[in-house]
Structure formats: C-alpha cells, structure tokens
Design brief:
With 288 residues, this protein is mostly helical. Helices cover 73% and strands 4% of the residues. Strands 1-2-3 form a 3-stranded antiparallel sheet. The chain is globular, with a radius of gyration of 23 Å.
Amino acid sequence: MNLRRSWKFSDGVLLVGLAALAVFAARDIWQNIFTVGFGDEEQSHILIAPVVVVWLAWLRRDRLRLTPHAPSIWGPLVIAGGYGLSVYGFSDGLDLFWHSGAILMLVGAVLTVTGPRVLWKFLPAVVALAFLLPIPGRLRRPIANTLQDASAQATEFLLDIFAVPVARSGNLLTINGYDVAVAEACNGMRMVAALALVSFAFVFSVPMRTSVRILILLISPLIALIVNVIRLIPTVLMYGYSTEDRAQLFHDISGWAMLVLAIGMLWSFLGLLRWLEVPINPIPLSKA
C-alpha cells in the first residue's frame, strides 16, 4: 500500500504544530542557545543561522509540490533520540549534546510528518541547523589562537612594508606606544564561524557542481584570514593614532562589513573560475 500523497492544508498545520511543540518541549535549551548567541561575540553566527535555514528552505520550496510526503516512524525515533541526547548532555555537563538534542527533536518532528524523502530534498537547510550549535571552547580556542597569531603576523608584515613602526609579541601589536591585542581588536574566531555559515549559504544558493562547492568551502578559512587582516590593519592604526572610542566604534561596525566583503570575494572567486573556463554549472541529467 502506497501512503505517499499530495500536500493538504491540514498537513501544513500538523507540521507547524509538531515543530512548535518540539521547540516548546526544549524551550530551556533554545533559550540557552540564543542567550549564548546574543551574549558572546564569538558565537554571533547563531543569530544568522535561522535566517540561513529559512533562506535555503525557501529556495527549495517548489520541491514540496514535486515531492509527495508520507508519515514516517523514523520521526518519533529521532525525537526520542534527541531527548535522550539532551538528558545525557545535561546530566554530564556536555553542552554540545544538550543543544544537539533540541535540534534533533525539531528535525524529528518535521520528519514525522514529511518522511525522509522530503527531508532529503531540503538537506542543505537541515544541515544549516547545525550552525545553531554554540562552538565548544575546546574547539573554539585552538582555532581562534591560530587565526589570531596568523593575523598578527600578516598585519605586522604589511605595516612594515608601508614603513609603519609596529612591534609584535605573539598576538600583541604595539603601535605608537599603544598595545593592541588581536583577540580584542579583531576576533578571528567570530569571523571564521560567521564566514563558514555565509560560505555554506552561498554554495547552496547558487547552482554549481559539488566539486566547486567543496573547493569554496575549503578556501573559506583563507578568506576569513584575509578579511580579518583587512579589518585589523585600519583598526590597529586607529588604536595607535586616534582615540580609543573611535577605534572601538570602527571595530564594531567593520565586523559585519567584513562579511559583506567576504561574500564579494566568494562571488569574485566564482567569476575567476568562470573566466578560467572551469566547469561550474551542475552536470545536466540525461534525458534518456
């Protein structure tokens, strides 16, 4: 017996209702996730993630009409697994598991109504939910330290080229007698996490081959380093030769501006590949 059927208004009501119920059941976890996003600059990618999820799902909205859905027993199983993961994470103090459980409960609620076939059609939006997870400190600190040291070295090198007197000790730059810590002036981890999310949204918003998508995702850390240095150079100069208030204002404004620059660099890289006549567009499916 084939239970697959076309969409009805009642299906949409059930889908929204179960999803809302899953969020309500884990409301303390969701509140904690967004509290971290609002309170920690290094986790600000959390605030962008819902927009990316909705955007990627909206781009694929026509797939709902073309893909019949079917209720799935896998949905309740995923919900139960997510609940168990959250309980385990809470009892053992593992925030990653605690937070992941809430996301799995939401995915399970959707899966219950739609079935795996529909969820597969929206896989990029589903995967983007992972960006809602706060990055654990054990993972965040090594990446941030590596990027900050690299940014400090690159900034010192470029300032030396333009004969700007600057001294470096680790990730501490001294300019005109003022000490500027790279971690304070331009937080590298914030740029990496946000750019990773932006790159993910970019590659799954533009039709392209899987190999090109992987290539762009692989170069995103390099772009993060470049835009971080572009932001860091004028920030250091302002700390050294302007007032601290003006330097801090520039630091705050330039953070989001660098994301716009990063998107422009991604488009430029895609344009470079086209200019080099590298195959970018997806391989057309055979009509045979």
